[in-house]
Structures are given as C-alpha cells and as structure tokens.
C-alpha cells in the first residue's frame, strides 16, 4: 500500500507546492488538512478545492474556532499567560490545535507521517513535531522547507512548472501568522532592533495615538471563564472577537519585543492581541480580588512555567497537563465583574464586583466599622521577623552584620 | 539616666503629637528624626525646629534622596520589582531607608527604643519594626497609634491642650504616602472597589486621556544602572526625577489595584509612579536583549521573591541580601540604549541598541546572510521532546493517553 | 445558654486539668474529644471515662487511624514530604486530623470555642489554630498553657486540690509526640546540640548497629498508593504498621536534626519514622522510573512547598489544596513493585518493576538492540547550548568572558 | 597550515585509537590532553608517552586534582548538589574541569577543534560540547565514536592493523567512570532494573552489611569549606580523600537509581561516593544550624537548579555563574564542627558546634531560662492564618468550603 502523508495546509503558495513536492520526494499520497483558528482569509471550501487541484488525494477542512477558544485560549487566559511578561502565546496556542486535527486525520486515513511548512529556525517546527510525538509517538514528521531545502524561489519554479492554481505574486514584505487570539509580524526592516514599527504593520489595532472616545466595558467571569460582556452572555470565542473589535479600535494590545526562541536565538517580534490583552488584564485583577495570597504567589510560578512550556511546544506534555489541574483549581472562585476603560492603547480596570471576593471592606477600611484587631500585629511582627532578627544578632557577634 | 526614644518624624500632626505623647507614656526623652526621600513639602529646617518646639530633646534631619535612589530604588529597577506584577514598591523602599537613619540616630544618641507613627493594620509597621530588628536586634519598637491607641481625635485634643505649633485642620480625605519613586493614595470612597478613581486623586501624573504631543526619550543603562537620558549623564535620582516629570506629563504610571497586605487582608490602592514605571519598562526590554534565556527565566523567580520580601518588610534579611548578589550579577551586561515613546499613559519601547546585545542579526534574519544551520533542528526537536514522547507511548499502552 | 468549649483531650495530666481549668477561667462547659491517630497507650473508653470524671459535660472518642493514614499520611508519601529534606511531618500530619474531629464536635455540640494543650513556642499551636480558623473561621481558640499560664506545677496543684483521678507522677525527662507515622522526642540534654542521642530515647526502632539478618520486602504501589507488601494486599494503615515493625526492627528511620520552627527559632529534634521513611524511599524511586523528567523536576518545587505548608500548619489552606491536585495527577502512573533491603538502619532499593515504566531497555542499553539514534545528538547539543554559546561570544567581545 | 585537533585522552583503547582515526578522517594533527581528576590508574607520564606512540604530535598531561576539588567539587558540596536527591554529580563535575584544560591546550597549540571519546546517547557528550562552546564558542567539536561510527570492534581492528601499543583485551563487563569525588558503574545485567547490584560492582566502598567498628569523625567547615578533619587542617582534596577512605571503609555512599538523562531517556546507574556523601551530609546539617530559615528555603530552589544545570552540562553558562554567587553568599556563615558516626553504610550526624550558630538555647529550651515570649504567638498565628481564614469564610458562603 502506498504510504500516506498528512500535510498541515494553509492554502498559500508554500504548502500548496508542498503537496506535489512531498509526493515527488517520498512517493507518498498527500492528504491536506486545513484548520480554521480564526485566521480569516479565504473560505474553507475554496481552500479544500485548491488542495485537491494541487494533487492531494484527500482534503479535509475544519472550523476549529470554538475549540481553539475554549480549549487553548481559555487556559492561557486563566494562567495569565504572557511569555516574558508580554506575549500572549498567539501562535503557540494555535499549533497544538492544528496538531490534534492532523493526528486525527492521520488516524482516519491511515497515514504514517505528518508534514508541516515551517522553517528550521523558528519555534513552530518544535510545536508541530513535539506536539505530534507527544500525541502520536508512532507518527513520523517531515518539514519540506527545512528537510528538502524547499526555498521560496524553488517553490515558485515548481508551481509554474506544474501549472498549479496559485498566484505566485511577490511575497509580502511581512511574515505574518494570525488567528483569533492575535497576530504576529516579522519583517526585514524590523530585524534592525533600533527601528520602530510603522502603522502599516498593524491590522488588528487602530493607532492608539489618534484621539477618540473611550469605550467602557464590563466583563463577567465565572470560574475564570469570560461568560458575559456588558451583561450579554458570550462564548469564549465571542468574548475574544468582541474585545478584538472594541479593544482593537482603541489601539490596545500592540507589543514590540525581543524574545528568546526555543532554538536558542533572540528574535524581534511585533504582536497585536487586543482581545487577549484585555481579557488577561481583567482576569488578573479579578484574581487579585478572589484568590488567597499564598495561592496567588505560588500561581505566578505555575503560570510562568505553563507559559514557557506552551511557548516551547510542550502543550501535550505530562507537566503541562499537571499544571492545568492546578490552574483550574486556582480559578474556581475567580467569579465576578471587571469594569474596564479601553482607550488610547490602554485597558485599565476601574472597578471589580464579586460574590466570591476576599476583599473585606470591614477589615480594610480606616473608617468606623473597622473590625481588624490591631493588637494582634505586635506579636505577628515580632515572630514574623524573628529568624531574621536572630541572624542579625549573630551577624553583629560575628562582625559580619550590616553597618547601620 | 533617662531612657531615650528615637521617633520617625514627618512634621505632621500625628508624629508631632507623638513627641509629647511618648514622653508622657514612657517618661523617655524623644529624639525626632526626619528623612527626606523626595516626598516634597516643607523645608527640612522648618521640620527640625517644629520637632524641638513640640518637645523633642534633639531633632535630626537628613537629605537622603540620593541614598534612597542609589541604594533602594536602583535595586528595584534592576529586579524589575513590581509586586503582584503592578506595584513598584514605592513605600516599601522608603521604609528601610528611614530605618537606617533611625538606627544611626539611636546609636548616636544612646536611645534604646525606636518609635513610628504607623497604624496596626498596614504593611509599614512591619517594614519599620522588622527592619529595625534586623539591623539592630537590641532596640525596642513602639507605635503610639497602635500601642497607646492614639487616635486622630485624641491627637487633636492633645495638640490643643499642649498648645503645639501645628495646624489641626480637618484631615484630607486622602491618606497619602509619597516619595521620589512614587505616590500611594487610599481613601474612603475608593474602599468600595467598584468605584473608579477621580482625577482629584492624582498629583504626579496628568490625565492620560487628554490630547498632547508624544515625548520620545532615550535612556542609557550601564550594568543595569540608568546613566544618561537623551545623551545627558544623570544620577539615578535625576533619572527618576526627569522621568517623573516627562512620563508624568504623559499620564504614565497610574495604577489601581487590589493588593494582598502582609497582615493577611486585601486592600485597594491607587499609585502613581511615572519615573519608576518608565525605568522598569526600559530596563526589562534591555534585559530581553542582553540576558541569556535561562538566566532570564530563573531571574523571574528571583525578581518575584525579591519583590515579595521587600513588600513584606524584609529588606535587611539574609535572603534579600543573597538575592541582591544574583541580581547584580545578572545585570552586569545590561548595557545600552532604550528609545521609548511616552504618550497617552503608555511608555512604549520602540528601539534598543547595545554593545553587549545577544541579539544576532545574522542568526535571526530570514534574509540572505542567515548563518543559522537549520539542519541542527531535527535532532534537537527529537531529543528535546523525547521524554514526553516516551511518556506518550506509555500512556497509550496504559490506556491513559490523550485522545487524538 | 452556657458557652461550650471543645477540648483536644489526650487523657494525660495537662489536658485533664484543662477541663476544670477552662471551666473556671471561662465559665463554659467543656466537651473532651480524644482522637486515636495510632499513638498507642490507653484504651479510648478509659480515656473517655476519665474526661467525664474530670468534669467534662460530654466526651467523644474516635478511632481515626485509617482516616489519618488514608487522608493525611498518604498525601505525604505521594509528595515525598520531608521537611528540610529529613522530617516526614509526623506531628504536622496528625494535627489537622484532630482539628477535623474537634470542629465536627464543636458543630455537633454547639460549641463556640476550641481549646488545645500546646505551649506558645511550638508549631502545634499554629497547626491547631490556623487549622481551625481555615475550617471553621467562626470558632475561637484558646490554649490554657499559653493563654492562662497553666504551668505543670500549677496543673499538679490543681489536680490534687480537685482530687482528679490522674497520676501526677514526676514528668518523663522526654517530651514526646507519637502516632502511627512516627515519633518525636525532645529533651533537656538534647537541647545541647553537641550531645548525641542515647538508645533510651528510641522506642519505634532497634539499634541499627546491632548485627542481625537483613529483611527483604517488596512494596507494590498503584497510583502512588501502597497497596500490597510481599504480594499481600494491605490498607495504607497496614502498610505503615507493617513497615514500622519490619523497618523499625532494622533500625531504619532515626533522624536527628536542627530544624526551623515556624515561630522563628531553631530547635533540635529526634524523630523515629521507620514506616514513613521506608515508604517514601520506595515511592521516590518508583517515581524515578515512572514520572517524566520535566514533571519530576517541577514536582520537587511542589513537594517542597507542600511540605512547608503542612509543617507551617496550613493543611486546610487554598494553596495546599491546589497543590494536592498537582500531586494526585503526578502520581497517576506511579504503579509497580519496589524491592528493598531493610538492614542496619538503611532502606535500600534493589529492584523496580512497573507496567507504567518510562525506562526503555532498548533505548538505554549499550548492547545490541539499541534503538537510540545517536545522530540526533549533535543537533540537539548545538541548539541546547546555543543561548549560552552566544552569551560566551558576547562575553569574549565585552572582555567579561571566563578565562580559559 | 595543517589543522590541529585537541583530543581528550584517557590512555585507554578508545581514545588511543581516536588519535589515528581522527588524523585519517580529518587530515589534522592530533594533540592529546590527559587530565588527572583523581581517577587513579596509570602514571601520567606513561599515558603521555603512549599518546605520542599512538601518533599524537603533542601530548599534555595535567595533575588537576586540587583544581578539581577546589573549583568543582567544593561548589557541589556548598550547594548540597544531589541530582534527583541522590547523585552527587561525579562525572558531571569532572567534565568541565577537563574542558578547561582542553580549551587551554587548543589555544596554546592553535587548534580549531576539540575531540572527545563519548558516545551519542549519554550526558557526557553534552557536557564536553556545551562546555567547550560556552568557554570557546569559536572551537568546533567532534566525537569519533558518535560522528564516525567508531565502534569497539572497529577500534580493536584499527589498533591491531596499526600495531598500536595498547592491550586489546576483552572489555570489562562494566562501563566505569571514576574520579576522586566518586565512581559510576553501568553494566549489562544492571540494565534490567529489577536486578540488584552485586559486591563485584564496587571498589570505593566496603560491604556495609559486614560487622565492623564504627568510626567517629569531626569535620570542621569555614564558610562552607571543609578545612579540618578531627582537628587536622586539610585541603578540600585531602578532605575528600580521607573521607573516601574512612566512609568507604564503612560502606557509606553506595547509590543505585534510575535517572533522567538530558537526552530524554531514563537509565540505571550505580554510584559510589563515600567522601562526597559524608561531606554533603555534614554540610547540610551545618546549614540547618547556621542559615536563616527563609534563606534556607529559597536555597533549596537554587541548589536544585544548580544541580540540574551542572548535570545538564551547563557548568559555564550565565545562569550557573549567577547561582554560584548566591550559593557563596549563603555559605558565608556555615562555620563550625560536625561530629558524625560512619558505620554500616550510614553517615549520621550526632553533634554540631558553631560560633555562627543561629540555634539559641535560651529561646529553644523548655527548661528555666527560657527567654521566648509566648504571648507573642496569639497575634502571630491570627495574622499568619488570616488570608486562609478569610478564604474559608468565603468558601462557606459560596458553598465550596471544606466539609468538617
């Protein structure tokens, strides 16, 4: 029986050429799989037909937008996932979603290999291949661009030679990956890290510097899940989409950073993620109100490791799954309303309301009604500082103390 | 010999009353110590004379602004210290500065006790007392407001009875602590956490929503120390002051959060810290460019613990000092220029330049000149994901694997 | 209605006197609650009658040995809980067990206060009071020894005056707390930390230096739970008891350490925990065989924090409960047999067998049959070390590199 | 000019063959470098001559035993470095020592490449190559066994063909790496992880089960450095050697474990490290006496990461160097005597004496002279448990509380 290869298919030039290229290189039949994670662009049916026209023996398309929002973006919100305190993991979240569909298609069609269109110096190759090996350790992976040196010039030549139904227009100056959770842009002139980005780079966000009316929004969470906006019930997908629109219109969520890739190099990245940033900002403040201090402090360690693992392509790893349980547990009381002002590139929390709040007005107030017993503090401070005080005595004795 | 008490003196009503109050309660002589950490307000000499007029046997004043900037604010910048990812530790940094002066005065004047004007439900009492016990474990601490139930009404009565030279005007609706690194505001109506702050609350920052011209600034760091602004050499204090002015004028650095106090309660706090936020934002991005990935990842854990310790009043503790060494080491290559746009409440990095950069254009570029050997990636991915892949095989065997 | 106080009752002199003492100090009715966590000693019914004879209005006794083993000792085994890498949390585990029974009794009998017999300088007072406040925040706590200065001499006088049916023989030179998970001993001559313990101190363990035959045992775990010993099915309680006997007979599990108490001081402690140490040693090695590397590395951080929290009395805290979920998840594949030799004070693993093993003979072997593809390593090493290599290049350039 | 390759030379069959093999494969001149890290065996001069006889153009030998002890083993003692809580990093410490000499020789002789004799599935290849790339990023690395498929059979054939002056006797059944800090053994029958090791495997340690007299030793540390044994001043090397003898004679330091290799697989390892285990055990307990609690708790996180980095070959990485500073600082007060009994495979601390002790008899004692103020505890406990108590109240309200 002929070997079968499942290809992660986007409908663009590179992966369209991959269909025939893989067939020639390996003698295998190619099954194209396109997954909609909210990247916009062409209709899935058009993409499906193009795959077949380019030589795929089968072509599958899937609208995975709700799945992506519920199973991938939501845990990122619940763990306030910002890689290097900035990047909301946009592409890192979409890759495992796609991987799951690729593996399902491989099982359905009896394929032994999965192919993707990534280069050999980015993070996405790791996310695809480590994802596949953790979900289906028996499947092989190939990356024609990396493994068969399929450059863009060769791709265009192949395309023209085979008369494939794809436009081979000159490449955009920008290398872009986008989905409903955000948009990543790399480009030649931004590889000089002293250069500032220009407005032309952005699509999901308006210029924050332009004057406009502020937008006030109330986001309701239940157990860390955004469930309503301004009182209207929403799905997670709808919450992201609505906040992409509204926060995007106010210029919220632009990011410009130098980041550490898993392959060991630093790269410069521009991101736009208005909905993601608005939701994480709101979620974080609702945690401040509803999560107990020691749980919150330790959760930062968990959140950081979760973000690193997901960035590093380890979505399906045992550690990532164990951290998920912790994060779920910590979110169980993250319930209530956050009121935010979206304006001038900023998403600013101005109010919180929660039935599961740990903020106790009577303990916090300096007005009458204060129920905090201040006489407890002296003993607390004395014993809280005791081990440091004993060390200070020793240091004085040993002559290694701090000079006063 | 009569006992002597050193009092942390601000010049205001409460601590002025404390002078006589402590004398009456303890029979001790009171030495007033006022420390300028950039809080503004009255002249130190006026404050010194008032202390004497209120009955202090000695009064010492110190301009500690440079000391505060160099020894307390700078390490906070170098550790990107933001408690709960937000608060740049404004008051938490000034307390140990003051503690050091109090202890020095106690030594000089042979005092056995240190007094401060804090209440019994905040963090500052811990910062004073744990600080003193770690620096001078033999000194005792008293807090008249907490320990002798010195309420404001009683203070006013005492003031009038003794005819002290202080205005006993009605208290401001705001409870404020400020210094050159920022300003903290608490107030009655903000104790309802659903209420938004009003413009009246702010002093260090202009309204970010008002239209104005953007301000572009270049901050130069050497080993994590801000040493120049727009090419002009500055001290740390000058850097903070200039950025307070310029970032403050753009509305940068307003914070509104519910935070976890050390005494176990949650409180609502409003902060303004334009210079601090601008400097930390710039420093953080320069770290992204110059600090190796694994060092950067671990430094987040160190930074978080450093911030918690300082917030919790443990400035002079053994762990805090050991973390300082790590942070110094990690900053040794944080050298170069950061260009930022200050505008509309945002401090946005737009360029970085560094002789100690780890960003390698030739490794990062997708253009010609790329020196990254993509053939290395396959082996890397395979072994990087190996332990997770072996676990996936086991899980399939055990029937506990992930469904595909 | 008369107030009611629930007292943690041991049957000994101190808590027997507490019954009447509390009644006199507070005017309340006292309900005595005795909980069997495997401490041995008198029959529960005798203890119950003594409480009533000493003036308790009600007396409840509970055999909580299985509950203690299943709900408190087992999680400690699953998290390899060794405070300061040594102490298996013997007393720290029994306190929350007792707290749960005290709170249940308080609810049943309408009590508003819980009392315990601890002093004011140990950890157990925190474990009782923080446990109660986290389980029943409305209940008050009192500790007569600490709060009413009930010294031993006063207790004996009270006892004789009231003619209570308790022997007031001279106190043992040792202060002891014991249960099925281990035994803790403090004593006057051991407060000199240069003094070695003597044989007289020990009860659960034989002298390891005496010659005897080794004992070989096979312990079977399922999902981290010890379920069989030498092929015979056991409950967790039976596993601990059998290993207390067998490992104790070989002198396993003696500990002598200086430890950090929560109240800020260091103390010297002698422990015996033969079953606990044998079970944790076996569990740890079975984890080595069955838990994926990154999960195992992070679990050390979780295990450490879990142990600190439990030592610090935070059993019922939100963070402890969230960590429990992580630990459960990490234990799901900890299944199989561990063979150990118990001899001369040592519990040494000599064999492991597991259906859920991640040890792969074919990948590990250096003999024929090796399936490890060594050609992958070069790329792995190159990219794994890339960020450090780039930093080294920078350091050479900057003249801050390592001298070779 | 002819290229030059520096080879890590042991004097054994494999690396002797490498000399000619590398010359044939690459056309380069080979410089052999042998480093004595206390592995015992042949005289360095004999090894040097053999290298030349096998075709090396230069041969350098270095007695690096003191360097190894002072610069590599000592930091491991000071960080209580036990990978997976067991393995004292024996081989992981020797590799960077050797790397430093290889790089120095490469610089001296103008070599562009470094070669080592490791296979492609172990940790040591990473330690060599990542070490070299972090110390001398311009040097290339080759591993003939891995890169040129130099199997043992081919090596023997090469040896006989070229008539090299090396015995080609049948390989020992054991694969061994040893140095003064310990000894590692792998072997065919131990690859079945159910098989127990046999006495034949061990060389550094006597059978702990055999009856013999106990040995009592007093180890003196200054700032975490072992400086005297039983009152006699020693170097670090002498301390390790003497304790290898004395602890080894008592069977101390045998380890049998399944461990996680960096390349993603689990392997079974037998180690002997009597001196290392005795020194780390003593050091750890002296830390318990002299290091403040919060510093000690955080140091566990640092120690763990340090051990992982060193195990993973990252000795010369930026993070490892930054952690070194922390560990140095934490050791500054680790001064004093530890008395241990070495017997029956156990190294048991029985006494501690320290001028920099934080153990305070007067605070710890339950006898008269107690200076601990127990009245402080109530306030401490109340505020220490406050955040958990407030959460418990919320949980009761929300109906998600713990059942009592």
TrEMBL record, chains A, B, C, D:
What highest taxon heads this organism's lineage?
Bacteria
According to its UniProt record, the EC number is 6.3.4.5
Q: Name one GO cellular component term.
A: cytoplasm
Per UniProt, residues of the Arginosuccinate synthase-like N-terminal domain are 4-165
> Which Pfam families has this protein been placed in?
Arginosuc_syn_C, Arginosuc_synth
Q: Where does L-aspartate bind?
A: 119, 123-124
Q: What class of enzyme is it?
A: ligase
Binding-site residues, L-citrulline: 87, 123, 127, 175, 259, 271
Pathway assigned in UniProt = Amino-acid biosynthesis; L-arginine biosynthesis; L-arginine from L-ornithine and carbamoyl phosphate: step 2/3
Biological processes, Gene Ontology terms: argininosuccinate metabolic process; L-arginine biosynthetic process; urea cycle
Q: Name the predominant localization.
A: cytoplasm
The record ties this protein, via PROSITE patterns, to:
ARGININOSUCCIN_SYN_1, ARGININOSUCCIN_SYN_2
Which NCBIfam families does the protein's record reference? argG, PRK00509.1
For this chain, the family text in UniProt reads: Belongs to the argininosuccinate synthase family. Type 1 subfamily.
Output the HAMAP family linked to this UniProt entry.
Answer: Arg_succ_synth_type1 (MF_00005)
Q: What is this protein called?
A: Argininosuccinate synthase
Record organism:
Wenjunlia tyrosinilytica
